# Entry
Amino acid sequence: MRRVAALIVVSIGSFALHASPLPAQERGVRELVSLLRASDPVSRARAACDLRELGDRAADAIEPLVALMDDATPISEDVCENNRNWGGRDGELTTPGKQAAAALVAIGSRSFTPVLNALRSSVWVARRNAAWALGALRDTRAVPPLIDALKDREGQVREQVVWALGALRDPRATSPLIEALKDQETSVRRQAAWALGALRDTRATGPLVETLKDPEASVREQTAWALGALRDRTAVPGLAKALEDSDPKVRRQTAWALGAVRDPRAAEPLAAALKDREAGVREQAAWASGALRDRTSVPPLIALLGDSEPSVRRQAAWALGAVGDARALEPLLTALKDADPSVRRQVAWAIGVVNK
# Structure
């Protein structure tokens, strides 16, 4: 018995002495979690980035990552080797909180409830980062709480909430997003226009047409894009009026939208836009005229083959080829002498199409 006991003791002792260390993955997560509390913000952000690369294998880091989402210390966005900038207002900067949100998204569905709880944090930065993460997680259970968060007192939180609702593309968000078109913050109204375009719900057409009158040009520009994305022909009269906007970026986006909607009623206002004082507007109007395939646009498009800007001449040649009207053949043959090689290539393509 004594010998057996001794063998047992030796065996147990031997096991204790030669026990396997923690798996490398677990050691890595534990070490990275400890770095999330480092005094240096760069170290905190890099730890979050490394946890993101582990994906769902970093599930043990969820709570510490959620706690880090309120960290708004600005650092260079190249802090992480494989940085995935999710946008925002910081330009070339990111924060440990943003990188923590990205890591939580990479972990996946197990992050959903902790991130949702962070949407009610007392720190607005954490709420903003949580809103982004909920949109990126693409779980529609987040729609009702995100709609509630549209009442947040911080504009940057509301802006991110609106983005998240657009990313989730759930029709329950349409009416609340329409209300967000009236938000006091320009950034929220602009993001709401984008989100409504992303939802592709034509209930938003009328309110978006009204938003083409917004006092801020950036909102009007995004609204024109949204109406083009909706492709609702009832928007054509409002878009045609917006071709007279004082801002060239708005006029250019509006021309694109009219081409995207593809309603023949747009041909006449687009023909006027082909003479716009801004080359970018003329170029986009030429594309839209070609997209409509309307033969009434052929004469003004032929005139654009002599435009001072190569980009406009090139787009006019494409549009003439898209329309496919034989009246364009001779002017296109003349345009083969264009000084710009990219224009000549487009002209040659158009000739081949028209001459079939």
